[in-house]
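ok trying again, last paste got cut off:
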Amino acid sequence: GPVVRAVAWDLDGTLLDTESLSVESFNRALAPLGKTFTFDVQRKILGLRGTEWGPIVVSDLSIPEDQLSAEQLVAQWEQGLAELMPTVQLMPGALSALSALSSANLPMAIATSSYAEAVVHKREARPEVFSHMRTVVSGDDPRVRRGKPAPDIYLAAAEELGVDPGECLAFEDSLAGVRAAAAAGMVVVAVPDPRLDAEAFTEAGATAVLSSLEDFRVADPRWRIRGPT
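nice, full thing came through this time. structure:
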């Protein structure tokens, strides 16, 4: 398999179990309108930035613009999520995968659609994830002109890590994210929500689809991990 010299991580739903908190924050914002956030909508917006998902949610849930605009929804969701973030849990196997890759001396980065301000709350809640990272590229970084599924964020991460994108292993839980990392030329490991169809992730460009990070092995024959020589 391809030689891997660095790693880029998606954050939400991949390392941190933010999705349950996200759903709760959506429902807090939508309850006054008599609306409920559904998995169908959640599936559609996984991996996207607020500027991209706001209009989708407002449209799919038929929210009248004069009741709640896309911008207002994103702002309320961000605020609710920040309040809930101190309770965020790690995804199963996250720390063991991070430790194994750190032991192999691979430099690592986070490539997240979250905005920098939201990343601050996540870093405060789970410093043990961020201590492994050389850098974080957030969704509002000026180099990320187009959000996932465009490759911009992963190209920026590879540049920060000082490697060719083709020498980078990317971990993702969303189709948009897998497409972004694959478009950048990375070797992609997908760890999707079990309710999603694994085959769609392979079609989107994932080299491996794992049911959990607990199944990740550095010595997997689908890639060759090489620390700095």
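cool. The chain has a mean pLDDT of 96. The first helix runs from residue 19 to 30.
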